[in-house]
C-alpha cells in the first residue's frame, strides 16, 4: 500500500505536459471546428435573410397585383361610350376609374415599369358633371414594388380574346410580374392574373 501511494504522489508531482506537437494538433483541430461552426453560422444567417426578404417581396407584390387588378376591373370612362383604357403597352398602363364619392370624380391612374420598379401615379378630376372631364397633371410617380425582372409585364386581349395593342380595343388585361430578391437574384418568382373590364363600350 505505501508503494502505491508513493507512485501516485510521484505522478501528481510530475511536471510532464503536452508536447509541442500535441499542442499544435489540438490547436489545428480547434481551428477546424471554429471554422466549420463559423461557416455554418454564416450560411444559416444568409439563408434566414433570403427567406425574410423573399417573404417581404412576395407580400408586397401580391398586394400590388391585387390593388392593380381591382382598379383595372372597375375601369370606367364616365359615360360608357368612351374606352376607359388610355395607354396600353408592355411597360405602361393608364386608365380611367371612378372614386367612391357621390357624385363621383373620375381618376386617371397610371402604372409604369422600368429599372425593375413598378410605379403608380394618379390624378383626380376637378369636376363631377361628366364629360368633358377636367384633369390636372398626373401626380408624381411613387414606388409600388421593386425587384421586378421581366421587361414587359402587361399584355392585352380584345373582345374576341385576341392579342391587341390598341388601347381602345382592350377588354382584358393580363398582368405577370417576375421578381427576384437582392440576396438571391438567381431565385425568381412569377405572379400572374388576368382582369376583364366590367365597363367597356
From TrEMBL:
* Source taxon at top rank: Bacteria
The name on file for this protein is Prepilin-type N-terminal cleavage/methylation domain
Q: Where are the transmembrane segments?
A: 20-41
InterPro entries in alphabetical order: N_methyl_site (IPR012902), Pilin-like (IPR045584)
Q: Which organism is it from?
A: Gaiella occulta
- Tell me, what's a Pfam family for it? N_methyl
User: Which controlled-vocabulary keywords does the entry list?
Assistant: Membrane, Transmembrane, Transmembrane helix
